[in-house]
Amino acid sequence: MNRKSLSVSLYLNYFVHGLGLIIITQNMQALSTHWQTPIATVSYVVSGVGIGRLLAYFLLGSLSDRFGRKLFVNLGMLSYLIFFVGMAFVTNIQLAYGLAILAGIANSALDAGTYTTFIEMGGNRGSANVLLKAFVSVGEFLLPLMVATVDAQRWWYGWTFLIAAAILLVNIVLLNRQTFPARNHDDATMAAASHRLSKRRRLIASVGLAGYGYTSMAIMILYTQWISLFVSQTFQFNQVVAHLLLSLYSIGSISGVGVIFLLLRRGVSETRLLVAMNTGSLLALVVVSYSPLTWLSMLGALAFGFTAAGGIMQVGLNLFIKLYPHVKGRVTGVYFTFGSIASFTVPLITGWLSQQSVAAAMRFDLVVGAAGLLLVALTAWVLKPARSLTSQRQQINQIDARIVKLLNQRFDTVTAIGAIKAAEQLPVLDQNRETVVLQRVADQSHTGAHTPYLQAIYQAIMANSRAYQAQLHRKDEEHD
Ligand SMILES: O=C(O)C(=O)C[C@]1(C(=O)O)C=C[C@@H](O)C=C1
């Protein structure tokens, strides 16, 4: 497996995904002329993407645990390819809606195959998932420039779609030359950590993180949808500042990705990062929601983008995946399904609130932010390594259960060896083999101070193996 080449291909997909996310809305005018429909109908087609995601996330996530990540990355790329080529030529609205649904499915398939792969690459690759966000942002940044160029040159609007398709086509070839890491490759420490957690704690953390799948998405959608209108109506900010608050949010977001990436690389704890970032985003949101000072609002917007949109959603997902290392795909599916429900419901809720006032719609983001903070704080609290006597003993109980099971297996093997020795009339004691076993214990022990104690335990185990073999041997002779 060539990690670098595989990573580049996976990142490139997310650049194209960034183009795909806004390609319909950025070509709204051209498509409405081409389809001979009102703009509202084009906007209706966009909702198909959300439906596709909602339908596909859970299913594709679970299936990727069974059939491998590579298949689903390919499925995502092929679906996106059909979407881009089809959208460039389609004239029928029903067909366009079908293609939009396919784009949603493509998004789900890519996520099911990619987030899981980065975790399965091992090491500290969770940080790579945060970087995916940056590639999406670059795509979203470049697409409007591409559309503007095509428009200014009076070229056919379909070219931007075909450029995206061409990048995908090249990447399909590149990606399929790579081998993926072993599926459900169980990072031993990850599995051990998730094992140590009591069922109740794991359940609470799961509820917290699934809920965070919703709030982390909702907090961003709500801000981007309402901020400009809100500040111009509530604080009479001029149009330039109103739109600048969105651009500053994007700049904050991209710098946030860089910082979170580096912090994760340095081994900063994910739970701490989640609590700190969510505290920061709630504070920034308070500033933006209540400050009538332009400069302060601008600072708030930057800080909000940094803390709420700098890949912290991906950090939540990484943590969630580590709780269930055996079903990474399913967990990814669940998390993003909650995110999709947010993209679906936030416009509905805030649309209803805006009938009261735009400020009510915008300030609802504070409720979302507070809920998010509460959820990550709860998660961090239950995942905190416990140090009380009772909890340490619970830990020992769980470790002992595993040791006893392994000792049973060892004794089964000792029985088999005993039978072979009896048949071949070999002595029960094999001093050379015992020396080898003790040496292997010393080599495998990761704490030198433990080693003589582990060897003493093994001497006792082997003495008991011998006693067991001798007793079996006696029984056999009695029978004969
Ligand atoms: O390897 C063997 O010959 C065994 O019977 C197993 C075992 C052990 O428990 O590891 C037990 C007794 C022998 O003296 C050496 C090793």
UniProtKB/TrEMBL annotation:
<dbReference type="InterPro" id="IPR036263">
    <property type="entry name" value="Chorismate_II_sf"/>
</dbReference>
<feature type="transmembrane region" description="Helical">
    <location>
        <begin position="333"/>
        <end position="354"/>
    </location>
</feature>
<feature type="transmembrane region" description="Helical">
    <location>
        <begin position="38"/>
        <end position="59"/>
    </location>
</feature>
<feature type="transmembrane region" description="Helical">
    <location>
        <begin position="203"/>
        <end position="224"/>
    </location>
</feature>
<keyword id="KW-0813">Transport</keyword>
<keyword id="KW-1133">Transmembrane helix</keyword>
<feature type="transmembrane region" description="Helical">
    <location>
        <begin position="366"/>
        <end position="383"/>
    </location>
</feature>
<feature type="transmembrane region" description="Helical">
    <location>
        <begin position="244"/>
        <end position="264"/>
    </location>
</feature>
<dbReference type="InterPro" id="IPR036259">
    <property type="entry name" value="MFS_trans_sf"/>
</dbReference>
<comment type="similarity">
    <text>Belongs to the major facilitator superfamily.</text>
</comment>
<feature type="transmembrane region" description="Helical">
    <location>
        <begin position="71"/>
        <end position="90"/>
    </location>
</feature>
<feature type="domain" description="Major facilitator superfamily (MFS) profile">
    <location>
        <begin position="6"/>
        <end position="388"/>
    </location>
</feature>
<keyword id="KW-0472">Membrane</keyword>
<feature type="transmembrane region" description="Helical">
    <location>
        <begin position="130"/>
        <end position="150"/>
    </location>
</feature>
<feature type="transmembrane region" description="Helical">
    <location>
        <begin position="12"/>
        <end position="32"/>
    </location>
</feature>
<feature type="transmembrane region" description="Helical">
    <location>
        <begin position="96"/>
        <end position="118"/>
    </location>
</feature>
<keyword id="KW-0812">Transmembrane</keyword>
<dbReference type="InterPro" id="IPR002701">
    <property type="entry name" value="CM_II_prokaryot"/>
</dbReference>
<feature type="transmembrane region" description="Helical">
    <location>
        <begin position="156"/>
        <end position="175"/>
    </location>
</feature>
<dbReference type="InterPro" id="IPR020846">
    <property type="entry name" value="MFS_dom"/>
</dbReference>
<dbReference type="InterPro" id="IPR036979">
    <property type="entry name" value="CM_dom_sf"/>
</dbReference>
<protein>
    <submittedName>
        <fullName>MFS transporter</fullName>
    </submittedName>
</protein>
<feature type="transmembrane region" description="Helical">
    <location>
        <begin position="299"/>
        <end position="321"/>
    </location>
</feature>
<feature type="transmembrane region" description="Helical">
    <location>
        <begin position="273"/>
        <end position="293"/>
    </location>
</feature>
<dbReference type="InterPro" id="IPR051788">
    <property type="entry name" value="MFS_Transporter"/>
</dbReference>
<dbReference type="Pfam" id="PF01817">
    <property type="entry name" value="CM_2"/>
</dbReference>
<dbReference type="Pfam" id="PF07690">
    <property type="entry name" value="MFS_1"/>
</dbReference>
<feature type="domain" description="Chorismate mutase">
    <location>
        <begin position="383"/>
        <end position="473"/>
    </location>
</feature>
<dbReference type="InterPro" id="IPR011701">
    <property type="entry name" value="MFS"/>
</dbReference>
